[in-house]
Structures are given as C-alpha cells and as structure tokens.
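Morning. Coffee machine broken again, so started the prediction first thing and wrote up yesterday's gels while waiting. Chain of 124 residues, entered below exactly as on the submission form.
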Amino acid sequence: QVQVVESGGDSVQAGGSLRLSCSASGNSYCKGWFRQVPGKEREGVATIERDGRITYADSGKGRFTISEDKADNTLYLQMNNLKSEDTARYYCATGSPFTCRSYPTMATERYLYWGQGTQVTVSS
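Came back before lunch.
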C-alpha cells in the first residue's frame, strides 16, 4: 500500500508563491497534483510520468512547476503568481503501472493512491 502525504499549504496574498510537497512511500509510477473546491469536481493541475514527461492544465501553465526528487520519493508543486481562483484543497496522487497506461493523464481514475490534501487559500 502506498502512503501519500502532502504538505506546504498556507494562506497567501495574490501574487505570492507556495511550494507544495508530497511524500509517497513505495514504488509509484505516474504522479499528479489535483485540486478541489467544495461543490466542484476534483481537477488536474499537473502530472509527471515515470520517464519525466510533464503535463499541465491550462489553469497553471506558466505559473506552476511540477518536479520530483526520485532519491526520496518527493513530489513538488511550485506555484507562483497565485490568484484567488487557485484557492482549493490540493491533493497529490500516484498510480499503478496498469492505471498509468490505461487512462488519460488528468483523469482521476488513473490515480489509485491519494493523500488527505493540503489547503491553499489566496486572498486578493
């Protein structure tokens, strides 16, 4: 069983930056950051494949950067120039070899293991 734990959420002013971290135990393959606000579906933010290929949702292009440190199984999301619409609970997730091959990169079904999330609040 893969354990996923996010950290780094905070309250910031618009235009500020945050770096989210995600620790995932065990072997993981595709990995991603998602976010969700109450009453809305969870949406993909950025994903990274085992071979390093990265995909960003339009919402974060040019402002967010996903990266990982494979040595200690840590995934990061650097978020710059934050906007009020970035306010959400951010989740880290990982998939299995089968699900990583079977679903589109931003599909939540692709990711089997999820953390509890970390809250990001951006005030204008």
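The first helix runs from residue 97 to 102. Going to sketch it on the whiteboard this afternoon.
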